[in-house]
Amino acid sequence: MITLSTTETLNLFSLEAYDYHLPEQLIAKYPLPQRSASKMMHISRETQTWEHKHFTDLVAWLQPEDLLVINNTKVLPARIFGNRRGYKGKVEVLLLHPTGDEADTEALTWNCLLKPIKKLKEGTLIELPNTTSVLEVMARQGLGHGVVKAHLLGGEASMNELMEKVGELPIPPYFARRAEAIDKERYQTVYNKVEGSQAAPTAGLHFTPEVLEAIRAKGVTISEVTLSVGAGTFRPVQVDDIRQHAMHAEWYTLPQETVDAIIATKANGGRVVAVGTTSVKTLETAIRKQAGTLTQADTGWSELFIYPGIEFQVVDAMLTNFHLPKSTLMMLVSAFANRELMLSAYEDAVAQAYRFYSYGDCMLIA
Questions:
Q1: Would the pTM of this model clear 0.85, i.e. be above it?
Q2: Which tens digits make up the pLDDT trace of 209-230?
Q3: Is residue 313 part of a domain?
Q4: What are phi and psi of 199, to 5 degrees?
Q5: SS3 at position 63
């Protein structure tokens, strides 16, 4: 068991307070051969200590009265490369969400990111590989954002089918590579079902059907939420005072059966264990919309920014991966535990050669 070391006290609202040094070689750019083979750092908020474990030790830690909440979102093959009609230069479109009903992934008109946006004027047709279908630029907006409309001329029945034919999974920029065949399976959770994300809920990538069955066999309830993880999850914080940061909005759905399971868990003295910061964000957003008492299903946009000083009202423990320096997710886990504890634990994780980020190891904070 390792204890908290003394760290420099900084203003908790200062961006610099969430920085740490990570050697490049510790960024996991490919998954391990086995999903559940990751290491797990178990951090105790009560004792301010941590232990080095393995992910499968989560099964032994969970108790029958506990509730495990998972995000069942599915990553769309939403990154599309093509070229302007009449030109050879490559352009990139990252589909974000439909302009109308967020859940309607078969819609033909989408908000997106465009590269290079200066060359993609309104009315530009983008030709795509392996199809005669095209994307038309309908609008250009600030910070690389725009709107495109699909013209299905290649026999595709829907936007989903077009994405499956010509799109790639939008893997994180720190992989420093294009998506490969292995990502099609491993950059999705085994329980994905609701299409809509531009990034995976990566704490869930460790689970296998066997681990989930072992958890259920203990009597632990597993409930689902959906939060469509946006590309903004990789957007850096660019203000010195983190309270000035504007979060990107993400669409979420909290089913009534999950609400009922949370109520029963709390009544029975169990713990609500959120798998990933996306599950945390869903639960903590919904209870705030319901004035501090979670009673009913909920859906909508979440722009909740959790940083030190923000109290957690639902979540008792969380499983999460290791996050980027100065990121909003570093601030979230620092709010759940505390900044000094998290930075000391991260320092030790570096010393122990943990694997970082989406395909990396995980931590259980309880």
A1: yes
A2: 999 999 999 999 999 999 999 8
A3: yes
A4: -150, 155
A5: coil
